Amino acid sequence: MAIQTILVINRSGGLVYQRDFLPSAAKLTSNEYLILAGTLQGVVAIASQIAPKSLQISAKQGAKTGSELGDATQTVPYVGSLGSSAASAADLGSFLGPDFFNESFTSWNTKGLKHVTTDQNSLFLYQTLTGLKFVAVSTQNTTNAMAVSIAENLLRKAYCLYADYVMKNPFYEPEMPIRCELFDKKLGELVAQL
Amino acid sequence: MSSSTNNTPVPSTSSKKSLKVFSDDIWKNKTAKINAELFTLTYGSIVSQLCTDYERDFAKVNNQLYSMGYNIGVRLIEDFLARTALPRCDSLARTSEVITICAFKVFLNVTPQVGNWSSNKDSFSLFLEENPLSEFVELPMDAAKELWYSNILCGVLKGALEMVQMDCDVWFVNDVLKGDQTTELRIKLNRVLKDEIPAGED
Amino acid sequence: MAIYSFWVFDRHCNCIFDREWTLKSNQSSGTTNSKLNEDTAKLLYGMVYSLRSISQKLAGNEAHNEIRTIATGKYRAHILCTASGLWFILLSDLKQEDLSHVLRYLYGEIYVKTVAHNWLSPIDFAESEAEKRGQGFRKIRNRNFLLRVEQFLGPMVN
């Protein structure tokens, strides 16, 4: 599964980051990407509106049995690690740990759009509690639960990178397009490790 | 203080415990750490510089600290969520637990006590038994009346809560630096910004 | 196996058939061609339409890139778009990873045989200009079609 594109959409539906990872990927104009981001924002909202009635009925009947803080702490395979890969730095005690986020997690976006497949692509979407959306387009269509979980964890790691290299960059203005070289670099490394 | 924590609505001990274990793990294994003195000194130099720059107009210093905190909060929340992947809180009581047991633990390695719930459960206080920001501080005479030395915390909480669609007021009620018995920080929920909650959540 | 609903849209953006099951335990529960589902149908159409336009763009000019599935945290929609402009959509639980063969059967063996091959049934359900612009209300009422859909999909409900 090769990642073709990663997008970040802010909470009002504006595209703040877009990056292609494959030279062969279809080139969209920046305007088309903006429209795409806006459309996805709308679709996420629609998808949550049309949950089947039988689900709504059974949800009302059955008491909520959501276990908190997902007990499963299995390591996610294939998703690259963040942080310094240079072992020498760690020996001397780098203040950045090697990789904090190896166990899988639960996405709390339960009703909204998560995953779309077409003849040629899959599109994965991870929405944070602040309304930020991370989107990955891959070059393979799969509905395999494992692939979906890998993609979700990839996006979650992209979120960690965002929290580190975008939000903690004092010169980044929130809600504005992301132009941070470090974020670019780290994201590139993350995707390359896949 | 323990008597005031008793009126917490639905004190779900088991979920509280698991939250504590979870937070301790994040603090121990997943948090980059630096020297605390350096941090305290950095903050101290900012506050004292602000006092000089605003010609000891402490109301202005309070405001400036608050707005600096706000700008930190709107950013820091992303780090918090990315790090913890916690779900949205279903009640203010849960929010108070997550703030104290998880957020304060992860970022400052302290766990404030929650208490003084208002009768309609829309506001509560955090009691900071220790405050890493003001470890070595003595307020000068002229500042003791007006300056809320750690006011940046209010701003951080305000900004972070706003980003998860909770419109709150946050302010200091007491500070041991001013000779009070406790350091008390009050959080009042005005409303939940329902329209801004991202689509797709329950 | 659990499927929740089945929808057919024609090339004029009209929903020409909908069947929604409301109880897992009962194959005959729920509604068929219900007025109450009109809004849901429009939302579903809008969602698929938007995502289709995205997928076309992502593929560039070279090839078709039809949409196949859409998943949320609660359900999965399986989509079959025919070249003649019909859309067949099935909503299922998340365990169903690919129902394209079911949709193919619904199209090839049920729709074609009971509607397209049936000279007494219209194949274009819009009869006036307004109905061709999304104002359509006519549904497939053909008894054979209804019966065979029920027979085929009913066992998959629970």
From TrEMBL, chain A:
Claim: Transport is one of the keywords in the record: yes
Gene3D superfamilies: 3.30.450.70
One record GO biological process: endoplasmic reticulum to Golgi vesicle-mediated transport
Keyword terms of this UniProt record: Endoplasmic reticulum, ER-Golgi transport, Golgi apparatus, Transport
Localization (cell): Endoplasmic reticulum; Golgi apparatus, cis-Golgi network; Golgi apparatus
Domain of life: Eukaryota
InterPro entries: Longin-like_dom_sf (IPR011012), TRAPPC (IPR007233)
GO terms for cellular component: endoplasmic reticulum; Golgi apparatus; TRAPP complex
Family per record: Belongs to the TRAPP small subunits family. TRAPPC4 subfamily.
PANTHER family recorded: TRAFFICKING PROTEIN PARTICLE COMPLEX SUBUNIT, TRAFFICKING PROTEIN PARTICLE COMPLEX SUBUNIT 4
Oligomer status and interactors: Part of the multisubunit transport protein particle (TRAPP) complex.
Protein name from the UniProt record: Trafficking protein particle complex subunit
Organism: Lachancea nothofagi CBS 11611
TrEMBL record, chain B:
Name of this protein: Trafficking protein particle complex subunit BET3
InterPro entries according to UniProt: Bet3 (IPR016721), NO_sig/Golgi_transp_ligand-bd (IPR024096), TRAPP_component (IPR007194)
Subcellular locations according to the entry: Endoplasmic reticulum; Golgi apparatus, cis-Golgi network
Keywords: Endoplasmic reticulum, ER-Golgi transport, Golgi apparatus, Transport
CDD domains to which the protein is assigned, alphabetical: TRAPPC3_bet3
Family listed: Belongs to the TRAPP small subunits family. BET3 subfamily.
GO cellular component, one term: Golgi apparatus
Gene Ontology BP terms: Golgi vesicle transport; macroautophagy
Lineage, opening ranks: Eukaryota, Fungi, Dikarya, Ascomycota, Saccharomycotina
UniProtKB/TrEMBL annotation, chain C:
UniProt keyword NADP, yes or no: no
InterPro entries listed in its UniProt record: Longin-like_dom_sf, TRAPPC
Protein's name according to its UniProt entry: Trafficking protein particle complex subunit
GO terms classed as biological process: endoplasmic reticulum to Golgi vesicle-mediated transport
Signal peptide: none
Entry GO CC: endoplasmic reticulum; Golgi apparatus; TRAPP complex
A Pfam family that the UniProt record links to this protein: Sybindin
UniProt keywords, alphabetically: Endoplasmic reticulum, ER-Golgi transport, Golgi apparatus, Transport
PANTHER family with a match to the protein in the record: TRAFFICKING PROTEIN PARTICLE COMPLEX SUBUNIT (PTHR23249), TRAFFICKING PROTEIN PARTICLE COMPLEX SUBUNIT 1 (PTHR23249:SF16)
Top-rank taxon, per record: Eukaryota
Location (main, coarse): endoplasmic reticulum
